[in-house]
Amino acid sequence: MSNADWLTRTQAALWHPCTQMKHLERMPPLPIARGEGPWLVDFDGRRYLDCISSWWVNLFGHANPRINAAITDQLGRIEHAMLAGCTHAPVVALSERLGKLAGLGHVFYGSDGASAIEIALKMSFHFWRNVGQTGKTGFVSLRDGYHGETLGALSVTDVALFKDTYAPLLHPSHQVMSPDWRRAEPEESAEAYALRAAASLEDFLAECADTTAAVILEPLIQGAAGMAMYHPIYLACAREMCDRYRVHLIADEIAVGFGRSGTMFACEQAGITPDFLCLSKGITGGYLPLSCVLTSDTVYQAFYDDATARGFLHSHSYTGNALACRAALAVLDIFDTDDVLAANRLKAARFTELLAPVAAHPRVRNFRHTGMVWAFDVDHAPPGFSRGFHQRALERGLFLRPIGGAVYFMPPYVIEEPEMALMARVTLELLDQS
Ligand SMILES: *Cc1c(COP(=O)(O)O)cnc(C)c1O
Fold this sequence. Notes:
Blueprint lengths: L2 H11 L18 E5 L2 E4 L4 E4 L2 H4 L8 H11 L13 H14 L4 E4 L2 H18 L7 E5 L8 H5 L4 H4 L10 E3 L13 H19 L3 E6 L3 E2 L5 E2 L3 H13 L2 E5 L23 E4 L11 E5 L1 H7 L18 H16 L2 H15 L1 H4 L4 E7 L2 E6 L6 H11 L2 E2 L6 E4 L7 H17 L1
Bound molecules: pyridoxal-5'-phosphate.
Pyridoxal-5'-phosphate (PLP) binds next to α5.
């Protein structure tokens, strides 16, 4: 079967995510036959560098031998057992290791990122109810924040394109100023801007803490906002205020967890621990759907009771899937044996150097970098810029998907110098040409 055959069949049989299907007439999806490290290979044998880690999930490349081996071994033992009424070795070991890494106690599992958000929102609400504070039912999130697309998660998301159509179905939530430093005044530092944003969060809490269950935010990088980045002091301020006003802090590290921000978890850069930590995406190295929410002993204890209804009676069929947990354990092993965070610091410094001509390009605004994420805004990006840039990058062997006028790189951690040089060179050419 060739690329063309698969395209005909996909158009006839599938409904693709985040896609107006009619646009596929002009911009067909890339048919993927296999993967090799950071590369995707189509049915005609053409190779594309996966510059965005297959929607931010891949960490150690495609068809990684170590993750493959772990899953294969697990397949011969137990692929899945329900987690209500059963437990198994991979889920116990993973919970112990995640708890230790995050400094939080019990781990509750879901399947996708959005399900982790639903869990955190429901747990926070239910905690306040269990401790007798039934008025605390509201949530506050950052402007341009993204937390997923199920109804609860979409309620705290602030992306008009995804949200407006469904507004009548959503629970009202409040948005406060984002610390995204691109909006700072010309002479204002990222830190000063973050402090100004924190002051606006305080204004909100001072007035509404009694009716607010939690603040939910993406630490350091607002991904879907176009890789908006901000100073860690905002997180330190948010933590302190949440304590002072008795409001939970939910850290959505679904995209930035597992080393993406430069530290294992982004919250570490502000020296804080959230009340709820939501993880997914990179957790299995991009292999299998798995998500989880870690929370504090204080929260856990408020549910621990003889009364069934005081418990957290939420579930998903694939909660704590054994294959996914084994993949996640293999990922944590790779972090340890390869000292990935240190290796990434060197790679990041090198890629930033290679991108210097891109950063200096006259069409480039707000070049920014945190950990293993790089982004910039293209000045006066014309309508359809994202689609055109994607298409022209693809012709040159790069799989990139700008968000509006924001071009970003979020490569798998296994990239090496030649791939970094390719990304920098092709991007510069594309900027010169369009
Ligand atoms: C991707 C993402 C989600 C949703 O995860 P899904 O697995 O797509 O449901 C939530 N929050 C953030 C920050 C994300 O990047």
